[in-house]
């Protein structure tokens, strides 16, 4: 998590969506993790009561899928 010192806001990579929820306990984090991991590619980070939810950019997801397909094809050739 990167914070801009002047405004205390989260900085995100271009195309990336990010939100921080403060004041969450560990049980709430575990519930959110189980809900979101089943349905999305959201990445969760928890640190001392702050839950940060990050959604990767569409470009990142495209290249991740492309890499997965390339590995699958290469595995089939070997």
Task: Give an overview of the whole structure.
The chain has helices spanning 26-39, 58-77, and strands at residues 17-22, 43-47, 50-55. The protein has 2 helices and 3 strands, in the order βαββα. Helix content is 44%, strand content 22%. A 3-stranded antiparallel sheet has the order 1-3-2, with helices on one face. The chain is of the alpha+beta class.
Summary tags:
about 80 residues, alpha+beta, 3-stranded antiparallel sheet, disordered N terminus
Number of DSSP helices?
2
Strand adjacency order, main sheet:
1-3-2
Secondary structural class: alpha+beta
How many strands, what sense, and barrel or not for the largest sheet? Answer: 3 strands, antiparallel
From N to C, what is the helix and strand string?
Answer: EHEEH
Oligomer description: single chain
Gap between N and C termini: 40 Å
What is the helix content?
Answer: 40-55%
Radius of gyration: 16 Å
For the residues shown, what is the average pLDDT? 77
Q: What is the total number of structural domains?
A: 1
The coarse overall form would be: elongated
Summarize the structure.
With 78 residues, this protein is an alpha+beta fold.
């Amino acid at each position: 998590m990167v914070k801009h010192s002047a405004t205390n806001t989260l900085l995100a990579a271009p195309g990336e969506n990010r939100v921080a929820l403060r004041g969450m306990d560990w049980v709430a984090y575990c519930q959110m993790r189980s809900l979101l991991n089943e349905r999305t590619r959201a990445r969760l980070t928890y640190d001392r009561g702050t839950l940060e939810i990050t959604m990767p950019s569409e470009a990142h997801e495209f290249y991740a899928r492309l890499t997965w397909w390339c590995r699958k094809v290469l595995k089939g050739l070997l």
